[in-house]
Amino acid sequence: MAHGISTTEVPVPQFPKNQAAGDDPHRTDHATAQPPVDGMSLMDIPEVCAKTLQGRTTIFKKIKERELPAVKLGRRTMIRRSDFEAWIATLPPVKGAR
Questions:
Q1: Cβ(77)–Cβ(70) under 8 Å?
Q2: pTM attached to this predicted model
Q3: Is residue 13 in some structural domain?
Q4: How many helices (H) and strands (E) does the chain have?
Q5: Which of 26, 68, 74, 77 could serve as 62's disulfide partner, Cβ 3.0–4.6 Å?
Q6: What pLDDT does residue 96 have?
Q7: What's the confidence (pLDDT) of residue 72?
Q8: What's the structural domain count of the chain?
Q9: Does 35 reside within a domain?
Q10: CA distances from 47 to 3, 34, 60, 86 (A)
């Protein structure tokens, strides 16, 4: 031991092949995950954006204006699929369409 410095080796974590240090095998892709709450299917904001071809700002504006109901699941803002479908049904038809 020189100058009071310990030479004890620190173990390096070993990860299985094809798994990086930041990968968690139990983690799901949040963009496609639809966690059920009391049997309800939920959509996250990226999924709502993808289905409506609208941006996050527009979707959050609809939520703020209480046009599109939302719930919180932890820190995440989620839309009940039934609320999303009801909101879509209230949108006006294209002029000239039957």
A1: yes
A2: 0.58
A3: no
A4: 3, 3
A5: 68
A6: 81
A7: 95
A8: 1
A9: no
A10: 59, 10, 13, 16
With 0-12 / 13-18 / 19 or more C-beta atoms within 10 angstroms meaning exposed / middle / buried, residue 42 is buried
Residue 3 in contact with residue 44, Cβ under 8 Å? no
Q: Which two tokens stand for residue 14?
A: 């070993």
Closest CA to 35 of 63, 65, 76, 67: 76
Q: Is residue 2 part of a domain?
A: no
For residue 83, the model assigns a pLDDT of 96
Residue located via tokens 């000239």 = 96
- CA dist 49 and 33 (Å) reads 15
* Alpha-carbon span 89 to 80, nearest angstrom: 14
For 32, the token pair is 């496609």
**Cβ pair 35, 21 in contact under 8 A:** no
pLDDT in tens, the chain (98 residues): 556 655 666 666 665 666 554 555 555 555 455 555 555 699 999 999 999 999 999 999 999 999 999 999 999 999 999 999 999 999 999 888 66
